[in-house]
Amino acid sequence: MSKSNPPQGLRQPTTPPNAPVHPEINEILVEAEKKIYSYPDEARVLANEALQKYLAVNDKQGMAKANFTLGWNEYASGRFDLGMEYALQSQKLALMVDDKPLLFSLTNLLSGIELSHGRLDAALDLNLQGCKIAEELGDKQKQAISLLNLGQLYRESGQFDRGLEAVKKSLGLQDETNKTTVLAQTYREIGATFSQLGNHDEAYKWLLQSLEIERGRGNKSLISDVLNNIGVILQRMEKYDDAKPFLEESLSLRKEVGDPYNISMAMLNSAMLLSQTDHFHEAIALLNEALELVKKSGSKKGELKLEEVLAQVYEKLGDYQTALHHIKHAHELHEKLISISIEEREHRILAQAEAERSKQEAELERIKSVELVKAQRMARVGSFTWDTDQDLFTGSEEFYRLLNRQHADGHCTLEHFLTKINASDRNQVRKAFRSAFEWHSLVDVIARAESHESGRNSTFHILGEWINDGVSARKLSGTLQDITIQLEADEARREREKLEGMLEMAGAFSHEINQPMQVIVTATELLLYRYPDNLEVVKSVEKILQAATRMSEITSRLSKTTTYKSKKYVGETRIIDAGDGE
User: Fold this and answer.
1) Owning domain of residue 114
2) Is there a single domain that holds both residue 134 and residue 13?
3) What mean pLDDT do residues 524-539 have?
4) Lesser CB count within 10 Å: N end or C end of the chain?
5) Domain count along the chain
């Protein structure tokens, strides 16, 4: 993940798995990504154009992608500070929309920038985050990329065995998935590791395989990277004549691409070859030309490298005064880089803290939204807003559920809303809303609508009040509450109260009637005893006894009643139904 070897995750398409919301803008971004290594200035213009378009439509995922592409482009061009700014802004937006594929690529980009500043620990932490995201996504190709980057970081920190182990695991995953998009980079990383282990022959073999793949792909920037690596390996093997054509071709390709930083680094390697073959003056001329170019690129780290090599070449020439001059410049640059590094680290920590705060706020809003949905479902209350300027209803998930509408149906007008109301109640609801609009009053109306659950009519309480924005109130905010269960409970309570009242009355009635009834029965039986032969008296007494028996049966039925029932009597009058009777 050095300047000439960007994080491998950046080679992968940044388009998320779901289709972009604005495909026409996404096409601009895709075109920008294709030009990063070949035409970085054009890539920058295109990415900025895409960013402005995404801003205009408030597409946060698109803005995150555009900032990522800009950061990638600046990093690839050696402008690490600017690359970091764009990457952190992208990270903040990606966290807000939970775009994990993009967050994966961002960990690779940020890791590469940290490594370019020599901050291995920070780069390793970011790469491990990338490994975790790749596992969460279940994407073996991304896991392979993470392991490849991890191997490079281990190599950079001198842990060569662990580095080779990680890279070989990456190679195994690539074979398993039959995807070879990072195969050339994998071979190059294996070659770099063998080179640092001192096994230059093995390194040369792996780099040649990488070069063959890159030539087949035709990316001039990546071809020049591998040519440069091979040239450096051959220099270390002291095969200077063999190294020269590789370095010359690398420089030629980088000049075609036109990136000042990469050209200056290629010149640096060619100059070191000239110095090693005692062509000091040619080396100095090439180094000075490279120094002017790297200053244009703004890379202080590249400038430091060139000042140090110039000091070494002048020292070999015996020009100690000029060597000291370049050493002094190198020392000043080193101090500046330390200062910039501290400032960048502070900025990065603050930006990451802000990104974490934004993530926590987004999660809190998500939790609140989920809890609101749960609370509204339990209370059977949906919320809505009526924008009178556009005659537009927008509602919560529960609002649409209660009205038996799909949330995906989106917005609806007042009349669309009224179609869900029972026809017999529709006019009164319409009047309630129109009256509220004309008189700026509350909406408070009860109406029936088809239930979302049983298909029968449910009863709803519609309540709304105007939102006061300090200028004019053109929006009415309200609630739609299903009160069917409440009404049924109220009705059941009333029936229970009626029954309790009737039972109390029946008990009292039975008690009060039974006593005089016993007197009547006793008296009539006494009359029968005294006048058994008087037929007229016997007939009258028997009728009295029959009526008394009937009254006794009625009081008995009343005392055993468990439900309240009434029946029609005279006209509109209704009386308690005491059961069957003659």
Assistant:
1) 7-138
2) yes
3) 83
4) C
5) 4
Please check whether residues 450 and 545 belong to one and the same domain.
no
pLDDT, tens digit, for every residue of 242-253? 999 999 999 999
In this structure, is residue 166 part of a structural domain? no
Please give the single-letter amino acid code of residue 258. G
Answer whether 402's CB lies under 8 Å from 382's CB.
yes
Nearest to 484 by CA among 459, 454, 517: 459
pLDDT confidence bin for 12, thresholds 50/70/90: very low
| Residue tagged 């890791």 (tokens) | 111
How confident is the model at residue 7, as a pLDDT? 45
| Residue among 166, 119, 162, 117 nearest 146 (CA) | 166
Pairing of strands 475-482, 457-466: antiparallel
- Domain co-membership, 510 together with 437: no
What phi, psi does 452 have (nearest 5°)? -75, -15
Q: Is residue 164 part of a domain?
A: no
Nearest to 347 by CA among 150, 106, 113: 113
Q: Write out the two tokens for 220.
A: 């001039």
Q: Would you place residue 368 in the very low, low, confident or very high pLDDT band (cuts 50, 70, 90)?
A: low
The Cα–Cα gap between 303 and 371 comes to 56
Structural domain contains residue 345:
no
Q: Which of 31, 5, 3 is nearest to 182 (CA)?
A: 5
- In the chain, what percentage of residues exceed pLDDT 90? 23
310: which 2 tokens?
């110039």
CB atoms within 10 A of CB 313: 21
- Residue ending a domain, among 83, 104, 138, is 138
Residues 421 and 311 in one domain: no
311 lies in the same domain as 266: yes
